[in-house]
């Protein structure tokens, strides 16, 4: 008799690190729910890829900046869980959805600041709050941060501030959810070749070379460097890792 498969919910799972994490989890035997904001076709492709790996999956539209939509999202999620899995809870939550912005402190607009805060800080806080009843006791939460909370690169002050808040939130979640046996950790990727932030790390040769030169392993990160790390934090043997910030950067700016 096989044990019941675990279910992970990954926000922003239609592309980049979210997609890679979804596939890594599926390869490890976990079923997956992904969210997408506008890339419905890409999300459907990810669901198909997961299904091809022999796991169950579904995609749900969600704007993580719109807190007023979270209760409806939770109802939709509940319906999907009941229909597809005959369950009413998930085991893992990965708060991954995000946007990029590059501007000096001097030129950062209030609109940009508010948008970053809505997606990366307020949205993470209140979506997690909304989903707490849906996360099974003994489950896990992984919050995606950034290496930019440890090292400083001009142009990312507002973005890094929000991620710094998420790292503090992780520790408080771990403390408050400890009685339920829920472990909460942060993963902080370094610079990764994706379309995040307009694909600057991937497409700008000068930026790519600069980062590679400041990384101990001598190259810029790839999505395949991050998804398996997220999966490892959700693996059965990692349950005693709690309230930690794990940087996956190849050793940037040591």
Entry keywords:
254 residues, 7-stranded parallel β-sheet, alpha/beta, single chain, 8 helices, Rossmann fold
Contiguous helical run count: 8
What oligomerization state is this entry in? Answer: single chain
CATH homologous group name:
NAD(P)-binding Rossmann-like Domain
Structural class: alpha/beta
Which regions contain 5 or more consecutive residues with pLDDT less than 50?
A: none
Average per-residue pLDDT, rounded, comes to 94
* N-end to C-end Cα span: 48 Å
Shape: globular
Tell me which CATH architecture applies here.
3-Layer(aba) Sandwich
Structure, briefly:
The protein has helices spanning 16-27, 40-52, 70-85, 110-131, 157-177, 200-203, 205-213, 227-233, and strands at residues 7-10, 31-36, 57-61, 90-95, 135-144, 183-189, 245-248. The protein is an alpha/beta fold.
Q: How would you sum up this structure, described in words?
A:
- This protein is an alpha/beta fold.
- It has one domain (7-189, 226-248): Rossmann fold.
- It has helices at residues 16-27, 40-52, 70-85, 110-131, 157-177, 200-203, 205-213, 227-233; strands spanning 7-10, 31-36, 57-61, 90-95, 135-144, 183-189, 245-248.
- The model has no long low-confidence stretch (mean pLDDT 94).
């Amino acid at each position: 008799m096989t044990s019941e498969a675990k279910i992970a919910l990954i926000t922003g799972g239609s592309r980049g690190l979210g997609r890679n994490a979804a596939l890594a989890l599926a390869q490890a035997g976990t079923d997956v729910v992904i969210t997408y904001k506008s890339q419905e076709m890409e999300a459907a492709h990810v669901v198909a890829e997961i299904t091809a790996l022999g796991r169950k999956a579904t995609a749900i539209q969600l704007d993580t900046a719109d807190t007023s939509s979270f209760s409806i999202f939770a109802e939709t999620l509940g319906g999907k869980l009941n229909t597809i899995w005959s369950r009413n809870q998930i085991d893992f939550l990965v708060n991954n959805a995000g946007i990029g912005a590059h501007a000096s402190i001097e030129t950062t607009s209030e609109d940009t600041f508010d948008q970053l805060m809505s997606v990366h800080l307020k949205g993470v806080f209140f979506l997690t709050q909304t989903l707490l009843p849906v996360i099974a006791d003994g489950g896990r939460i992984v919050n995606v941060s950034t290496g930019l909370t440890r090292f400083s690169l001009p142009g990312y002050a507002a973005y890094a501030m929000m991620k710094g808040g998420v790292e503090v939130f992780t520790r408080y979640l771990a403390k408050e959810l400890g009685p339920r046996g829920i472990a909460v950790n942060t993963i902080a990727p370094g610079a990764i070749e994706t379309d995040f932030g307009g694909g600057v790390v991937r497409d700008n040769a000068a930026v790519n070379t600069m980062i590679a030169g400041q990384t101990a392993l001598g190259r810029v990160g790839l999505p395949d460097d991050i998804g398996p790390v997220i999966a490892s934090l959700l693996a059965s043997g990692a349950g005693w890792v709690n309230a930690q910030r794990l940087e996956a950067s190849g050793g940037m700016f040591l």
